[in-house]
Amino acid sequence: MGKISIALKRGASCVGCDIAVVNFSEKLFELLEIADIVFSPTLLDVKYEDLEKMPDKSITLGLYHGAIRNSDNEEMAKIMREKCVVLIAYGSCAHLGGIPGLANVSNREGIFKAVYEDTFSTVNPEKIKPQTEWTDEKGHKLTLPEFYDEVYALDDIVDVDYYVPACPPTHKMNMEILNLIKDWVEGKRELPPKGSVIASEKTLCMECERNPGKMRYLKVDKLKTFIDVEPDPEKCFLEQGILCLGPATRAGCGTPCIKVNMPCTGCMGPTAAVMDQGGSMLSAIASIFGVSEKELELTEEDIEKFIAHLKDPLGKFYRYSLPKSLLRKVVKDKK
Fold this sequence. Notes:
Layout: E1 4-10, H1 16-22, H2 28-34, E2 35-39, H3 48-53, E3 59-65, E4 68-70, H4 71-83, E5 84-90, H5 92-96, H6 108-118, E6 133-135, E7 141-143, E8 147-152, E9 162-164, H7 171-185, H8 204-207, H9 256-259, H10 277-288, H11 300-307, H12 313-317
Parallel strand pairs: 1-2, 1-3, 3-5, 5-9
Antiparallel strand pairs: 4-8, 6-7
């Protein structure tokens, strides 16, 4: 196989995943030896129409990062799918909806009301809200993308070949991707089965340098925050009563947060064995904190007792995965 081509496109994103590509560091030159980056609005002087004009399937590998928040995100995701032979959901937002997906606790009407009416710093006496189309007195038409009622992950909109989790993918993960691409280009190995998440199938606890695999034996009686206690850099966070999502989170990131004495927040998403990351974490943590000896048999009273110790449980357990969870979004009573 000769030199391949790569395109990067972002949706609803903080652009951190673009910067993660730069985090290849000097290894970026190894990537450029086997691949040309033909489209990347953040890294190159290109326009959307440049991508639209490329022949279908002319790009070997596409990395789409960011969630689908509006019609522009959806349109560009579909164009990327048309132009790329292989399309990768790169990072938490494309993989699971990510932090933008927390907006699913509300809807378009609620968000617009909060931003354009209720926020204390907003000066908008006429309560004007964005519209997809507006024409001025001279007949000039202006358009904006349609703001959707909920946030979607990439595979809710287009077919996805592979997933690279994390917020953003770490240097360790990028090196694994680089080696995979190099071996594939050189004919040394095939790509994984379609639909694979390019990361470990173990949980973070199983690979964590702090008491790996011992989570099941932990028993603590109170949740604590960094205000309450200074974390011991040698001990498991959960053993210290500090919430860490390692038990319900996929390994493979290289534990950069743990290494700087910060607990896991779950950005790698769940393993294939877990249906709902937040539900799995709730059960595991409730067991650890002595709510129930059998984490799969929690009563409503058990859960309420545990939640009383925890501020913002939805934001903590579903920080990156709400759009792909069993909860998915807020349900508004049409009555």
